[in-house]
# Entry
Amino acid sequence: MERNEAQQELTFIKKVMEDSQRTVVDNGRQYVLWSVLVLVGIAIKYLLDSLRSSLNPVWLWAPLIAGGWLMSILLQRRTYSEIRVKTLAQRTLEAVWTGWLIAIPILTLVGYFSGAIESWAISPVVATLLGSACFATGRITGSAWLCGAGCLWWAGGIVMFLVPGAHSVAVLGGMFVLLQMIPGIILYKRWKADVCRRNHE
Amino acid sequence: MSEFDYKQLDELIHSRVRLAVMAVLVSVEEAQFTFLRDKVNATDGNLSANLRKLEAAGCISAVKTFVGRRPVSSYRVTGKGQRMFKEYLACLERILGV
# Structure
């Protein structure tokens, strides 16, 4: 084996290894699930407000978050059986979103109950945390638009902190549609098309 | 060129398809057959034959399961495979004098 050939082999190995290490499956199902749950919660909240209901919002959000957790676990188990490759990047991605799923009820429900976080601050807190999770996901998957979505979540968080108002929940809902639900649907369609292509090969 | 002896290179790994398979499997925890096929760009038959050789040599292990009704084969590299791949890389680096 000549020196050039050895160099080519090493370059080839390095490229294959780098490509493989970065492989992750992000099928967007979780994004859509949580967007739908948040939008349902916001719609109920506005309905209760219009009816001048005195129901503590915790009793609205706690079952929604608990239901979301359950459905998330079921979806994750299904995804895990469908993915073709298990990588460190995939595990890191799962850890980022699991961390988010744990942090959200701690900050919103426990934080609210304890009095440490007032109700107006919940929307910007959720937006800021989502920004971190989205940005990390973008970095792990090498997706510039997800990093951009993370930055938009952070920007939304700053705006909602600086300009608190009764409708910051509606702003949060709009951001969920634009930055979670639509990207989630696009990711899901791409993933589904990829699965169909492979099944027909 | 150097005092390099080509016999030091492991013939088992020194095939383009098997080398690519090993490079993929040492970088991931586990990979299915179709993923390897897409990464290596080999035909089903060629990849199967090479995977069997690596499995017979104890470099990789295979697990066969079902996803729904579809049979799925997953592969992962063994400790022996990791060592052999490291030695192969070390051998290449010796040639290059790295």
